[in-house]
Specification:
Blueprint (H helix, E strand, L loop, with lengths): L1 E6 L14 E9 L14 E8 L2 E5 L2 E5 L3 E5 L5 E5 L6 E8 L1 E5 L8 E3 L1 H20 L4 H19 L2 E5 L7 H13 L6 H8 L3 H12 L3 H19 L4 H7 L5 H12 L3 H10 L1
Antiparallel strand pairs: 1-2, 2-8, 3-6, 3-8, 4-5, 4-7, 6-10, 9-11
């Protein structure tokens, strides 16, 4: 993956009303044929501006196709990953912002994808300026980047009927982070909630309640999504039989695999493979 990332070590806060938004990092990335993303989440928001290529974002079990000039907004704790087209690799700029979440004023649901061809160029210029300041690190660059973020957020508010609300910045519990890593490393094994509780050295109730409170998803549903994400990669990149893929990623039967895969991606494994090859 071709990427450049700049962590904002200085405090870069915006002046947007009473917002406590803090810019954590700014990055630009391009798929160079080595992406193998996994479903993950953060305790902060992310803003992706698609520069080129095509692909999809998988957010909380739903697929969202993206193309140039789209803005992808991910609220804190949103389970997500991005998949790039082999023929038109994705390229994007991304900002990590702590302390805020986005709310749709009409129905309370956060809009994941904003199509904004007219405003994309303006926002792109501000993000490029922000990346330049983050790279140079001249005195006061943190404050400059924070104010540029403020301008970007104001442009977003003017494009769609969205509002910005404060978001809790709670720390990830170490035991929950460890359990998440355990699932990522062992998802292909026949894990049960009892197995996860044993691995975490906690009772089942604490594991289920603590994990969901921290990541917004139960550990067993996260396990299912992790398996489906890996299965999607194998369906796209290999010619393995679907039954073999089902077994490789840890499903107990083909029927459970097919039902789970369709519930999360809205496609059967066979349809997903055909669609990927067409793309």
């Amino acid at each position: 993956m071709g990427s450049q990332r700049y962590d904002l070590t200085e405090s870069a806060r915006t002046a947007l009303g009473s917002s406590s938004a803090k810019l954590l990092y700014a990055a630009v990335a391009k798929d160079e044929g080595d992406w193998h993303s996994i479903i993950h989440s953060h305790n902060f928001a992310e803003l992706f501006l698609i520069l080129g290529g095509r692909g999809s974002f998988f957010v909380n079990g739903m697929e969202y196709p993206v193309s140039p000039n789209d803005l992808v907004i991910l609220n804190p704790h949103a389970e997500h990953t991005e998949i790039s087209s082999d023929h038109a690799p994705l390229e994007y700029m991304v900002l990590g912002v702590r302390g805020i979440r986005f709310v749709n004023e009409e129905d309370g649901k956060m809009p994941f994808i904003i199509q904004m061809p007219q405003a994309a160029e303006r926002i792109r210029r501000y993000v490029e300026l922000l990346l330049t300041e983050a790279r140079r690190k001249h005195p006061g660059y943190g404050a400059i980047c924070g104010n540029l973020l403020n301008v970007i957020l104001l442009h977003i508010l003017g494009i769609r009927n969205v509002d910005i609300a404060p978001a809790a910045t709670e720390r990830i519990r170490p035991e929950c982070a460890a359990l998440k890593s355990y699932i990522d490393d062992n998802f292909s094994q026949p894990l049960t909630l009892e197995d996860l509780a044993k691995a975490a050295h906690q009772n089942k109730y604490y594991v289920a309640h603590g994990f969901k409170k921290t990541f917004g998803i139960s550990p067993m549903r996260y396990l299912a999504r992790r398996r489906v994400e890996e299965a999607g990669f194998l369906l796209r990149e290999t010619d393995y039989p679907i039954a073999r893929i089902s077994s490789m990623v840890g499903f107990s039967s083909m029927s459970v695999f097919s039902q789970t895969f369709k519930r999360i991606t809205n496609h059967s494994p066979n349809a997903y493979r055909k669609l990927s090859k067409q793309q």
